[in-house]
Amino acid sequence: MGYTLCVLGCGTMGIAVLAGVIDSLDAASIRLDNALRNAGGAANGDSSTPKLKWESHTPGTLTPTSGDPSVPTQFVATVRREESAKKLRDLFEGLGDLGKTVEVVAGSNLEAVQRADVVLLGCKPYMAGAILQEEGVQDALKGKLLISVLAGVTISQLQSLVHPETRVVRAMPNTPCKIREGMTVVSTLPPGPETANDKAIILNIFPSIGRCRFLEEKHFDACTALAGSGPAFACLFLEAMADGGVMMGLPRAEAVELAAQTLQGAARMVLQGNSHPAQIKDSVTTPGGCTIAGLLALEDGKVRSTIARAIQAATERASELGQPAKK
Ligand SMILES: NC(=O)C1=CN([C@@H]2O[C@H](COP(=O)(O)OP(=O)(O)OC[C@H]3O[C@@H](n4cnc5c(N)ncnc54)[C@H](OP(=O)(O)O)[C@@H]3O)[C@@H](O)[C@H]2O)C=CC1
Ligand SMILES: O=C(O)[C@@H]1CCC=N1
């Protein structure tokens, strides 16, 4: 049987992860799994031995098998306001049969955590204390895996807010998880009796919605800036490229399409060919041609250091997000 995943504070990022996971799941298998659950148990498989399916940590489609306890098959999402809950219900209903099974609740964090096997914390960084210290939540989280996507809130800060037997892991996903093109960094798991189970659970979530990589927690602020904030930076560049096209007479819609597909194509060449970006740049740049003219204009605008400094600034800001607000 699969497990119940609760997204505690399900806003932009919670929706992106949940929508991606739901899209990745095989609906028929989930229906079977839930039918078996309702009938009182799995028909086959040893539920005590989770399978680790995503050794490569590259994107794929989850096909949960009944008896696999490391695949999420039941979903609960919590928010603060009923108005947000209604919007979320409409959104998940639009995702088809599986989306309709997501239970969205407002103001009932405790019950949601009690029912969950794994909790993904998706609230704003400053809300972590209030939510995790709601009455009963500490006990409800005892012995469970808590995956936090909060920028700037460290594992030791989170661990101090939960029961000592709660296993805390950090993940830094990004919004393209929603279309299963995400990049998620997960903090290296500490050794322990539950490590293999937890790893199987994590590898059944994040690689199904994009790429996934484990890194030490000390890198998390930089990962937050580069991958977490990255879609915003990429879209700013994309928009500027499209503006340039519009300036030269292209219709807006086509200019955006050309810019988006070009960035996607270049990025895929780097990822698939394992090529250095400079090699790709050089292969486009004909001596005396138009590309070098454009590149020099970019260099005159200090675009490289500006972009690199943006990552530096975002990293520095990320490191402040878990700290108490200055008066
Ligand atoms: N946005 C992004 O691209 C990324 C964000 N992150 C991290 O993800 C986290 C969430 O960011 P984001 O999704 O943008 O934020 P949102 O504001 O979109 O989502 C926050 C959610 O928390 C809910 N919430 C607030 N208070 C409570 C409560 N007491 N109990 C239950 N739910 C509550 C809100 O519900 P309501 O609407 O009812 O108030 C809302 O659904 C942050 O910590 C951020 O650092 C990480 C990577 C990328
Ligand atoms: O801007 C932020 O603080 C969050 C974290 C990464 C992306 N959005």
UniProtKB/TrEMBL annotation:
Q: Which organism is it from?
A: Ephemerocybe angulata
PROSITE patterns given in the database record: P5CR
Domain called Pyrroline-5-carboxylate reductase dimerisation: residue spans: 217-321
Tell me which residues make up the Pyrroline-5-carboxylate reductase catalytic N-terminal domain: 72-152
Q: Which PANTHER family match?
A: PYRROLINE-5-CARBOXYLATE REDUCTASE, PYRROLINE-5-CARBOXYLATE REDUCTASE 3
One annotated GO biological process: L-proline biosynthetic process
User: What Enzyme Commission number(s) apply to this enzyme?
Assistant: 1.5.1.2
Q: Which family does it belong to?
A: Belongs to the pyrroline-5-carboxylate reductase family.
* Start-end of Polar residues biased regions: 58-70
Please give the Gene Ontology molecular function terms for this protein.
Answer: pyrroline-5-carboxylate reductase activity
Short name of one Pfam family = F420_oxidored
User: What is the protein name given in its UniProt record?
Assistant: Pyrroline-5-carboxylate reductase
**What does the record give as its pathway?**
Amino-acid biosynthesis; L-proline biosynthesis; L-proline from L-glutamate 5-semialdehyde: step 1/1
- Keywords associated with the record: Amino-acid biosynthesis, NADP, Oxidoreductase, Proline biosynthesis
This protein's source sits in the domain of life called Eukaryota
Q: Where do the segments described as Disordered lie?
A: 41-70
Recorded catalytic reaction(s): these are: L-proline + NADP(+) = (S)-1-pyrroline-5-carboxylate + NADPH + 2 H(+)
